[in-house]
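@channel sequence for tomorrow's demo:
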Amino acid sequence: MDETMAIILGILVILVLAAAAWAFLRKRRSQELREQFGSEYQEAVRKHGDPARAEAELDGRRKRLAKLDIHPVPAPEQERFGQQWKTVQAKFVDAPAAAVTEAGQLVVQLMQAMGYPMGDFEQRAADISVDHPRVVEHYRAARGIAQANERGEASTEDLREAMVRYRELFEDLLQTGVKQQKEVVHG
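structure tokens (generated this afternoon):
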């Protein structure tokens, strides 16, 4: 084997190794995104029609959120928000439509207090999906029911479902703050 052939063979080996490393890293990144975003990963793939574009968007969400100052609300505010939720929930019995509207507003207030930007709904949902992928679908479903309610198209059972879904998101947001504060105190 002459020197030129050895160089060509060496270059081919390097290219094959580089391709294998790239494929491994891409597969690992995909797995990390699937694990982090859960069902939101599949929703992004459905929306974009291509896993690579969906992954780029999800990765962009992570980078965007990393630049923001998202933080738990202080304990007294957590208490206040918890009390407000109980008041809204109690209102459901007599005024379900109004309670759903107030629940949606309270979720937005909590997100704002935590530092989430208050852009359009889709941006808020995308931001929430980074740290709260398990409940972002609840947020979307509750908002859809709230919009149907505004059009007079939601039944009392629909409104009950919206309250349950808003509560899931609300509690997850509030619990994250409680967990983070405990880690700071005990960690």
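heads up for whoever presents: The longest helix spans residues 3-37.
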